[in-house]
Amino acid sequence: MTSNQIAAIVLLSAIFFSSCRTQQDGAIDGVVVPPGTSAHITAIRDGKDIQTISAGVQDGKFKLALAAGVYTIKVVAADSPFPLQLNNITVEEGKTTTLPPIELTPLPRTGSLSGHIIPRQPRAEVKLISEGRERAAIRTDQEGKYEFNKVPAGAYVMRANAPGHADDAIPVVITDDQRIQQNAILLPITAIDGVDWASGKILATGYGMPPQDAATITLRREMAKRAALLDAQRNLLRIIEQIRIDADQDIKSAMRSKHIALKIEGFLKGYTIVTERELENGRFEVVLEVPLTGPSGLTRCIVE
């Protein structure tokens, strides 16, 4: 090979490598936030992956050396629910195109919620309500069991219902990676004076007579009011005892369990006085109310 041929080859090689360097003389850089999300950045051109790199673990920064042209930048991270794609990103020769900070939305933390409907209610409907909206719904199986999986962490109201039964609503908090157990009880609707099944309330009325030997009118009035309150409390208990848990058991029989009896005793102390009024001849009338269902209702005493 002559010296001229060697010189020509060297010149062509220099031109070739210079051309390659010129085509690569551009870049795209940026930062993924929050850092430490193990993000992978891919430059795509004409439908082909040209280059893929990982963002810095500590600072989230990345830089792609690319030939001049128009690219699509795809960012994928294990903690993000879907890839982020930036279209029509232009790379110019000798220049670096800096992208705005790329914010990745992390996957919501999830947990699970499961339990039974008592008594066993196949095909009962169980819903999860959050911020006034239904987020999920499911039917119980033949054993009355339900289970929600991959529920985003947060506060919910679990509402259960079945035909012929009073609805039950229970607040639940789903926490990250936890399995929450929550049973619900659906009381069969029966005709009982004082039970408002539609509104989920129990109302009891009591009457009191003033003692004839009271020293003052004020004392007679207070003693009549006290007697009316005690009468309303007794009537409230009588109403509750009639409520059925299932076809074979009412609450009166359930109270043979000391545990249940103590819980209902405490429950009755949480009454609300709806009205109190003085009647003729110094008699007094008091109306009490307690919730039938819900977070502080009677069902919470017997759900176990």
Concise account of the structure shown:
The chain is an alpha+beta fold and 304 residues long.
Count of strand segments = 22
Largest sheet: 4 strands, mixed
Helix/strand/pairing class, anyone? alpha+beta
Q: Quick one: overall form?
A: elongated
Percentage of residues in DSSP E strands: 35-45%
Tell me what you see in this structure.
With 304 residues, the chain is an alpha+beta fold. The protein has three domains: 3-103, Immunoglobulins (Immunoglobulin-like); 110-185, Immunoglobulins (Immunoglobulin-like, Sandwich), CATH 2.60.40; 195-302, Dodecin subunit-like (2-Layer Sandwich), CATH 3.30.1660. The protein contains five helices and 22 strands. The protein has helices at residues 3-23, 217-242, 251-254, 258-268, 299-302, and strands at residues 26-33, 40-45, 48-54, 61-65, 69-76, 84-91, 95-98, 102-103, 110-118, 125-130, 133-139, 145-152, 154-161, 168-174, 179-181, 184-185, 195-196, 201-208, 244-246, 249-250, 272-278, 284-291. The strands form six sheets. Strands 1, 4, 7 and 8 form a four-stranded mixed β-sheet that branches. The longest helix is centred in the C-terminal third of the chain and has 26 residues, at 217-242. It is elongated and about 140 Å long.
